[in-house]
Amino acid sequence: MNENQLINWLNSRLANNPLLSVLALRNLVLAVDSETTQLILNVHDDAVDIATRSVDSKYDCLIKIFPESFSEKTVKYELSYTLNSSLPMSTARIIEQLINPQDLTTADLRENYFYSFLFADTAKEVIYENNAISLLRYRCAFKGYDVYITSGFSDESASSFAPYDTEAMGLSGCGKEFFFLSKGEDKITEVLLIFFKKFIDELYIFMRGRSVEWDYFETGFGGFLVYKNLDFGSSISLSSGKVYFDMFMPLLLEEVQTINHLKTNFEDNRAKIMNMVEQIVEKSEFGYRESEQVAQ
């Protein structure tokens, strides 16, 4: 198999493959060998750059393909990792799906590929379920934080209760999943769980930029802001469309009241609101805030 043949075969496997958006979260670099052909694949932003591999090329893992198996139902290959690679074990499952693709549901792609890869194969715990939507917890899965994240708002069937034209926007389902970060089962986590269970029950879609006031003052906060994901990839592309990940970030009472007041004349106050939100986010840890820390 010459280089052009291998490139054409790879492109046939990678074209419009939703798993590219998963690998792009780590800007993964793959090496592919087949007999006398050595390639390097740089995965980024739902795309792949393919080039001839040089002696100095650095990569995360090597895929050695056996071209004699191309005529068979399953292409045979060997996968190995570089010594300094910190890739999760779910990487192997993703590579298998790229080389020997199988039909997968949106839920399977989301939980068993994206979430598993993103949260380094941390075991998922189902915290709550209703309306075919789950609230999952991954303990210490992101920079030491527990991650609470929904699974189901991006299913194709969820588009029926979205307050916007999901098809025109190229979205999968409602095009959203929501999450928040926690350092344990503290009061703020308890209150955010109340809100998450409520909007799962009511099939309510929080729009990005929404600020909500509450009266759970024992948390040290007066509400929360729905904001774009800060660090682990703002979106993924599934076969059924795009999915964005929005974060719930706690706000002090005066913060949420000020934002809500400014929103009464949003167009005139847009710059003030954005500046205020950016300052709040900048002082947070990936969107996580502790009331004692904020009050100082």
How would you characterize this protein structure?
By secondary structure, the chain is α+β, with helices and mostly antiparallel strands. The protein folds into 2 domains: 3-99, SCP2 sterol-binding domain (Nonspecific Lipid-transfer Protein, Chain A); 106-295, no CATH class. The protein has 8 helices and 13 strands. The strands form 2 sheets. Strands 6, 7, 8, 9, 10, 11, 12 and 13 form an 8-stranded mixed β-sheet that branches. Strands 3-2-1-4-5 form a 5-stranded mixed β-sheet. A hairpin with a 2-residue loop joins strand 6 and strand 7. Helix 3 (90-99) crosses helix 4. The N and C termini lie far apart (65 Å). The relative contact order is 0.10. The model has no long low-confidence stretch (mean pLDDT 90).
